[in-house]
Amino acid sequence: MLDNARARAIASNVVDPVARALLKVGLTPNVVTVTASLMVSAIVLATWSRGLFGWGMLLCAPMVFGDLLDGTMARLSGNTSAWGSFLDSVMDRVTDAAIISSMLLYVQSQGDSPALIAGMVALAATGLIPYIRAKAESLQISCKVGLMERSERLFVVGVAGVFAGFGVTQSIAASLYVLAILNAFTVFQRLNAVRTGVSA
User: Fold this and answer.
1) Per annotation, catalytic residue among 3, 92, 96, 112
2) Burial of 81 by CB count in 10 Å (0-12 exposed, 13-18 middle, 19+ buried)?
3) CB–CB of 30/87 below 8 Å?
4) Is 162 exposed, middle or buried (0-12, 13-18, 19+ CB in 10 A)?
5) Could you read off the pLDDT of 129-164 as tens digits, one per residue?
6) Is 105 helix (H, G, I), strand (E, B) or coil?
7) Which end of the chain has less Cβ packing within 10 Å, N or C?
């Protein structure tokens, strides 16, 4: 099994040359951030909402490098900034909303009202999780707790997308139930952390 240093070295060997090439043609990290996020959002809304999960996963695969490329480009160019970090976080929220919305549209088309309701809860909680942390930190309260960070949420969605791509479309509804429960639990974890921090 690869250790973290080895994994980072392999990723760097793949990503760094691409990042340098993009910088040479005049692209900026922020352009890559926005472009990758909007493309993923457009792809999932056009495919997953219609049940084309395999195509959605296939077309989104190259866009995954966007999350790696923008940070690498910023590092290589020495162009890291608060604005870039802020923009990256905002575009993450856009992508998350688009992915879950596409799943909502699919279960709605299947007449699955319980899954639709679960998806609405998941979508609302997905927005609340980073908001609670940001608001808490603006009050000088640490709020890094929580079961479902963005990587965990994307893992659940990704697994569901793979299964759905192979015809097990029930995985989409199942993942919405999982996200609804675990996202809501994370919201309560963070609310409790803030309450404790305020009381301390």
Assistant:
1) 92
2) exposed
3) yes
4) middle
5) 999 999 999 999 999 899 999 999 999 999 999 999
6) helix
7) N
Residue among 47, 45, 27 at smallest CA distance from 35: 27
pLDDT at 166: 96
C-beta of residue 98 within 8 angstroms of C-beta of residue 43: no
At 51-96, the pLDDT tens digits run 999 999 999 988 877 777 888 888 888 777 888 889 989 999 999 9
pLDDT, tens digit, for every residue of 121-137? 999 999 999 999 999 99
Instruction: Output the pTM of the full model.
Output: 0.87
CATH number (1.20.120.1760, 3.20.20.70, 3.30.40.10, 1.10.10.10) of 33-64+81-199 reads: 1.20.120.1760
d(CA 33, CA 75): 14
The answer to whether the beta carbons of residues 44 and 61 sit under 8 Å apart is no
Token digits of residue 192: 């409790």
Query: Could you give the CA distance from residue 117 to residue 105 in angstroms, rounded to a whole number?
Result: 12
Active site (annotated) includes residue 92? yes
